[in-house]
Amino acid sequence: MKKEFNFTWAALNLLGKSLYSNAWAAISELVANGLDAKATRVSVFIDARTKNDASIQIMDNGTGMRDKAIDTYVNVGYDRRDYYYHSNSPTEAQNNIMGRKGIGKLAALYLSKDYYIQTKTSDSAPTTWHLASDTRLAVKPYLTLETGIVTDAIDPEWEQSPSGTLLILNHVDLTGLGNVAFNALSHNLANHFLSSSMQSQAIYLGLARNEKEYNKHEFHKVEKMIAFHNYAMILENLSPENEPKEIREIKEHGSTVLIPYPNSDESKQTKVQVSSFSSVKVKDRPSYQGIYEISSEFLDAKILRLRQDVKIVDGIAKIPYQLTGWIGFHSTLNNSQAQQNDSNFRKNKNYNPAQIRLYVRNKLAVSNVLDTLGITQAFTNYIEGEISFDLLDDDLLPDIATSSRQGYNQLDGRWRLLVSILRPLVRSLITRRNEISKSLRQDITETVKRAKDIAVRDYGEYIDEIPDIPSKTKIEVKGMMAMQLKGEVEAKQNYKIFLSHKSDDVRFTNFIYKLLEQRGARKTDFFYTSADDNTEKYNDITSLSTQIKNNIVDDKSLIVYLATPLFKKSEFCLFEAGAGWATRGIEDYKIIGLRYEDIPQYLTNGKSEFSFLTNSEKSIELNKRTYLYLIDLFNHLIDHINKSREIKGEELVERFDQPQFEDAVQMRKKGKTEKDYMDPMVIDYWDTYVAPGLAEYLASITTKESVRP
């Protein structure tokens, strides 16, 4: 028996690619199908032992599919909600069915062209259907009923469940997804569904990246990891039964949060404020709950008659709406500081907490609606939230989802209504964050004043105890010291990186400069005389030597010395080294040596430094030793320039993940090299800026005479 799809392979391929941006989005769609089938348990097992030929099993214990449901499955575009309304089953239609257009099954086709569906109901035997790819794009794919096929379900719950559906996807290509992406899968999958909707349902995830993990067949419950205890203020509109327990605990216990002082390891303990959406009142702005009006002539008359919550007045349909959920702002985005407040906090390239997730019918509709609000104020990137606005997908109203189903038509009145409600809420949080920042700065000012007053007092007492100094002289000396100590001091705000180098050695400094710039650093974060894309340095009429001197003496500049044989022969380089040594402690600058003997001894002061070449190495390679040092160096530089961003409330430059190299035996068993554990961005920039012509460079520098810059 065959069940033919109503579209060709070519059409389905195009639809799938337009609907899903990545494998995780497609997997979440298949999980939603199980939840819509009233499953209490949906499990996902990913066998990624071979990434380019992985397999995925998705099992649910829902109602399963009878033969008629299989007919519906191959009917792309089938609207189940519309069917329920027109078959006089409005309760089913309004029961928060996530799907609308019958395109969720395309998620399976996006992931695989070879998969099995085994399904069973409480009153029928299991049936197994198979879809296999066809190279003829003009052909319509079909499901074939298989007999005698034994499906090996990894989740043991499948055998115990009287009904449900098991989907086995073969030959899935997960190339390009590293360990960090896999580790973030559980959190990202959890974020695809509204917490309050999952109280009687659960998702479980199993992941096998090697034989050991595969043999365990372990499943872990997928749960959200939201750092509620890192919030300094929360706005909410939630019923008691839907309120996260963490927010309830904060309200009940009067919790406090540590907010760091700018450019300091010290923090201020601040009471967390929890308020309702109704506390934010803006004149001439719509409320978070109200009535949406539209002419009834544009609506389906049968659905309209079945909707008891909708009133018709003078031909105008009045549809009730409500924005529910919570929005908060983080006290800090620094990982180590934030985790002191809440160990759940994380921020890396695969997860950014600075987002307001928009849910419609309990399913993630827009991953970050914050980007669409047009708010550019400082601290916007400190905002996180989860909101629900089902009016966007009300059954009475036209479908306004974009073709990718991952956004909405922003010209529609419903979307404009959402934005007009949301903007004042976000701005009120930013206003509160600015008030806290002002309070922190005032605390610092008062602390500095007290310290200066104490210093003046103690110094005065010391002067008074010195014999043989006339009283008039003592008064003059104490007055002069008071004026010096109480003088205004400019607050540090602009933290820079000074790349000290010989122009012949730019392959290394260009590597650092270009890589960090791509990471998110700005040109103004550097003083780098060899930068080919920074014209500002030529606009300053101050001489180059004066610029260099000012940047070295400025204690907001972190100096990185690139020491080579040519560096030691350069007048400018030796000047930079001497000035840095005279104005800084040895922990306040970084030294990279081509060889250990190239590093000026007065700079090291006995401290161990890094060199690209050792006694056992004759060439420079991006190996484990070099990579570990570079990651530490990059993160140190990123932490330095992030101090400016922390002070100004700007988005931080993301640190590099610490590599987890396995030993040589494990790498050999897995057929891996050291570069498989390195960040691809670092490899790309090394191969572009350092590696080309490196052998010739090394051969020439030991004999090449210095050329004055």
UniProtKB/TrEMBL annotation:
GO molecular function: ATP binding
Listed InterPro entries: HATPase_C_sf, Toll_tir_struct_dom_sf
Keywords: ATP-binding, Nucleotide-binding, Signal
Domain of life: Bacteria
The keyword ATP-binding appears for this protein: yes
Stretches that traverse the bilayer: none
Residues of the signal peptide: 1-25
The keyword ATP-binding belongs to this UniProt entry's keyword annotation: yes
Pfam families cross-referenced by the UniProt entry: HATPase_c_3
Name of the protein in question: ATP-binding protein
Organism of derivation: Bifidobacterium longum
